[in-house]
């Protein structure tokens, strides 16, 4: 057996590779380690795939945050393709032709919110054209995942906060979503219940009091929910802020949530969403106390790229309960 271990540079410094060798009884002599960057770049990823194309790995193991797991998901599907021909464009490949050849993937999330271990899509970034796109196919779903909350104990407040905010966004967006169904709503409610019980401790001085195992479970449940529904309007807005202003993903997709919440209650009057107010009211109140927009504005001041809300990804906007106007989108992002 030959193994590929994918982790971040930070994970390498924290000796995550040693954890994986021990936990899964991997032979170091039969393993190849690679470290990857945050926010996977499409050009770099294609080069990586082609450079590893003839390695013939039997299994891939990924340990890290959402970016690490997303990269490993792409590798698990595209390496068998690259073994036969050079990859030039990730979006042009017909993954149905190779779904039986994908490499077995085990994912171990070390952050508290992406849910990437439970989804069949991966986020890829085009840093030249300042665009984000997704690769979405059932074969990208990891065959196996392991939730170990001990990793959350090592995170700084910011590194814990942003993924939790991403989890909150996933949970809420799976509800205010045109693709929701009975199964996804059950998952969303389970996640909401956990978040509403724990979010009051989400502050710089108290976050260590959060039950990490529960918040990691909430992240996984929310990941399962968006695997059915996909994300929605908050994420559609977020990508502009992340790729143009450098706003961390979890923060970028959560600062608009309170205003979207009130918009749905006032303008959409969605009966299903109202059923969850016993959870969401507490969550929204705490998000407002965090003053997330002020955090976002600190990033904007250091960057000259202009946010253009008219160019948002329609695949994410179209999952929202109603079609928002540009003015509505602007209202979501302004004070």
Task: Give a topology summary.
Layout lengths: L2 E6 H5 L2 H8 L7 E6 L5 H10 L7 E6 L1 H17 L21 E6 L11 E6 L4 E6 L7 E2 L11 H17 L8 H17 L13 H18 L3 H13 L3 H4 L4 H12 L2 H4 L2 H14 L1 H9 L13 H4 L8 H8 L2
Helix pairs in contact: 5-7, 6-7, 6-12
Which residue ranges are poorly predicted, with pLDDT under 50 across at least 5 consecutive positions?
A: none
Average pLDDT rating: 93
- Sheet with the most strands? 5 strands, parallel
> How large is the share of residues in beta strands?
5-15%
The CATH architecture assignment of the largest domain turns out to be Up-down Bundle
Rg computed from alpha carbons, rounded to a whole number of angstroms:
19 Å
* Assembly annotation: single chain
| Strands ordered across the widest β-sheet | 2-1-3-4-7
CATH class of the largest domain: Mainly Alpha
Order of helices and strands: EHHEHEHEEEEHHHHHHHHHHH
* Alpha-beta classification: alpha/beta
Describe this structure as you would to a colleague.
The protein has 335 residues and is an alpha/beta fold. The chain folds into 2 domains: 3-145, Rossmann fold (3-Layer(aba) Sandwich), CATH 3.40.50.1970; 156-333, Up-down Bundle (Dehydroquinate synthase-like, alpha domain). The strands form 2 sheets. Strands 2-1-3-4-7 form a 5-stranded parallel beta sheet, with helices on both faces. The chain contains 15 helices and 7 strands. Helix 5 runs parallel beside helix 7 and helix 6 (182-198) crosses helix 12 (277-290). A hairpin with a 4-residue loop joins strand 5 (121-126) and strand 6 (131-136). Helix content is 48%, strand content 11%.
